[in-house]
C-alpha cells in the first residue's frame, strides 16, 4: 500500500507569547459577549507567559477522510461518509494517536504524533502574539466557522487567506483539533481556574474550533475540549506533528 507523504511546514524555534494576560480577560469576554461565552472560560488562557518552543514540523492541513481511509482499511475502523478531501472528524484521541503511530511506520519509522498545545499555538500565532492566525481582527470568510452557515466541513485548505504566519492552513474552524496535552491550568493561573475539567468527554485539549463554533474559538489563545461524546457532531479532528529536520 502506497501512503502519501505529509505536507510538512517547518516551524522555527522561537518565543511564544502563550495565552492572555489575566488583566485583559474581562475585556476579551466583553469583545465576544454576543457569543455567550462566560468570562471563566477565557480565564483558562491566563496568565500570559513567554516560553521558548523548539523547532518542529506540523502538517499544513488536518488529516483528511482520504488519508484516514488507508489506516481504517488496515485496522478495520469505519470511514466517515464525508468527501475525501474534507477533514476526518469523529475521531477519538486514542484513534488519532493510533493513526499517528501507524503512519510513522509507513513513513519509514518517522515519529509522527499529535502537536502539543504549545506547538499548536506557536504554529497559529507565530512571533507577534496575534489574536487570530491571520492577524488581530476577525474577518468573516477566512475560516469555516458558524458565521458562514455551512453546517458541515469543507475541503481542507479552502481558506488560504486565513493561513497562519508560517503558512499553516485551517487553524481556525473546519475541525476542532486534538493536541497531545492533557488539560491543566497554566502555571500561575488565577485560583478560580478549574484544576480539572471533569465534565469533558476527554481530558485532552483541543484547539481551533470547528464549523459549528463561533469566532471566539478561532482565537489562537483559546483553550477548548471535547465536551460532548458525539465527536462527529462537534467536529473533532486532528493534524500531525513531528520533530524538526536535523541539519
UniProtKB/TrEMBL annotation:
Matches recorded under SUPFAM superfamilies: C-type lectin-like
Coiled-coil segments on the chain, per record: none
InterPro entries: CTDL_fold, Sulfatase_Mod_Factor_Kinase, SUMF_dom, SUMF_sf
UniProt cross-references to Gene3D superfamilies, sorted A to Z: paralog of FGE (formylglycine-generating enzyme) (3.90.1580.10)
Domain Sulfatase-modifying factor enzyme-like: 6-241
GO molecular function: formylglycine-generating oxidase activity; protein serine/threonine kinase activity
Key words, A-Z: Kinase, Serine/threonine-protein kinase, Transferase
UniProt-listed PANTHER family: FORMYLGLYCINE-GENERATING ENZYME, SULFATASE MODIFYING FACTOR 1, 2
Protein name, UniProt field: Serine/threonine protein kinase
Lineage of the species this protein comes from: Bacteria, Bacillati, Actinomycetota, Actinomycetes, Kitasatosporales
Amino acid at each position: 500500500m502506497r501512503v502519501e507523504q505529509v505536507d510538512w511546514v517547518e516551524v522555527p524555534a522561537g518565543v511564544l507569547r502563550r495565552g492572555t494576560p489575566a488583566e485583559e480577560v474581562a475585556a476579551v469576554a466583553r469583545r465576544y459577549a454576543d457569543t455567550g461565552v462566560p468570562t471563566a472560560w477565557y480565564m483558562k488562557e491566563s496568565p500570559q507567559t513567554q516560553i521558548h518552543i523548539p523547532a518542529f514540523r506540523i502538517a499544513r492541513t488536518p488529516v483528511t477522510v482520504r488519508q484516514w481511509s488507508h489506516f481504517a482499511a488496515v485496522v478495520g475502523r469505519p470511514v466517515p461518509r464525508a468527501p475525501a478531501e474534507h477533514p476526518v472528524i469523529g475521531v477519538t484521541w486514542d484513534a488519532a494517536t493510533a493513526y499517528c503511530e501507524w503512519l510513522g511506520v509507513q513513513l519509514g519509522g518517522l515519529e509522527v504524533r499529535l502537536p502539543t498545545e504549545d506547538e499548536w499555538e506557536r504554529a497559529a500565532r507565530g512571533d507577534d502574539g496575534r489574536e487570530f492566525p491571520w492577524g488581530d481582527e476577525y474577518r468573516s470568510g477566512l475560516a469555516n466557522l458558524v458565521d458562514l452557515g455551512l453546517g458541515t466541513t469543507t475541503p481542507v485548505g479552502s481558506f488560504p487567506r486565513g493561513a497562519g504566519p508560517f503558512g499553516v492552513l485551517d487553524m481556525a474552524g473546519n475541525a476542532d483539533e486534538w493536541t497531545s496535552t492533557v488539560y491543566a491550568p497554566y502555571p500561575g493561573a488565577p485560583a478560580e481556574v478549574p484544576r480539572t475539567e471533569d465534565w469533558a468527554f476527554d481530558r485532552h485539549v483541543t484547539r481551533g474550533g470547528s464549523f459549528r463554533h463561533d469566532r471566539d474559538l478561532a482565537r489562537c489563545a483559546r483553550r477548548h475540549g471535547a465536551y460532548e461524546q458525539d465527536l462527529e457532531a462537534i467536529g473533532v479532528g486532528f493534524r500531525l506533528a513531528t520533530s524538526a529536520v536535523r541539519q
